[in-house]
Amino acid sequence: MHASPATVPVNAQNSWSSVASSQPIKQVTIAEQDKQPWRYLGYPALSTFMASDDDFFVVRKFGTVCARVILMLQDRIVILTEELEKEDNECRQLGLDNGTLRHDPRPRRQQILEELAWRLEHYNRFILDHSELKSRPDASKHQMRNLANWMYNNDRAIQDEETAFSKREGDLMTFVPMVKTPLRRFIEKFDFIRLAWCIRRKKLNESHYPEKFVSETTSYEKSARVDKAVTCTTICLGLAMLIGPLWWLQQITADQSNLAHRLEIISGFIIVFTFLMGIVTVAKPFEVLAATAAYSAVLMVFMQLSPVNSPSNPG
Fold this sequence. Notes:
Layout: E1 2-3, E2 16-20, E3 23-28, H1 30-35, H2 37-40, H3 42-51, E4 58-60, H4 63-94, H5 107-134, H6 141-153, E5 172-174, H7 182-188, H8 191-194, E6 200-201, E7 218-221, H9 223-250, H10 259-280, H11 285-304
Antiparallel strand pairs: 1-7, 2-3, 4-5, 6-7
């Protein structure tokens, strides 16, 4: 999904009505909207844009602030544990009972434990929540550009100081991360592909995305069709990598003089296969090597099927 920058002031929406419960409907013109975007667009329009597609939903992690809060919570717990150890040592020195919770001779110790209980719960919950956020991938340049384009096309709709978050590269994350193969990312770079009539969906049909907030500069792709295109491309490449060497090796006789030529063909297909595995899948390096090894074994079988010249009988 893409939000394209406009080179002229964007009249992205058609006129609509502002409805008040006790006031008559007032028609808002495009000129009024462009003059006061903070009034007629604002956060309702930005929220609609961000919620309309996962590629647009980019928010901050607040990594530095979270780390500081964690350190603060940790320090509060350290202070309490030190005070608890002090209470225990004083009980030993005074000969008091350290072996009871129900009849603790030091009431302050019970207060410390009760405070530690909720502070530890808060600390652990915060750590777990933050670790989940840290595991999310950073927003891609493509996603950040989408958000920046919307801000540019809807200038003054949001106050400048409140749009600063969109420029915090390295601290932005996608709300719903989507794993895309390098091939799909490559396809989406070309405007003539993502804007093709068979892939492009100009506006959303869902009723919970108000028509008046759907920008004309925002294009939505039909993800299912893109996925099918990538799948078909992958299948075609896979078949070509299997059938191609089979027919090529069939044309070369399996004698000693052609051994180097056949090995060159096999080596070339292995290199191409490894490259394709890297761009059409999200496999890890060791998985790519395992698949390449299996493919190499198949090619060796193909080589055994190559035609053999029959030795000529002496006359």
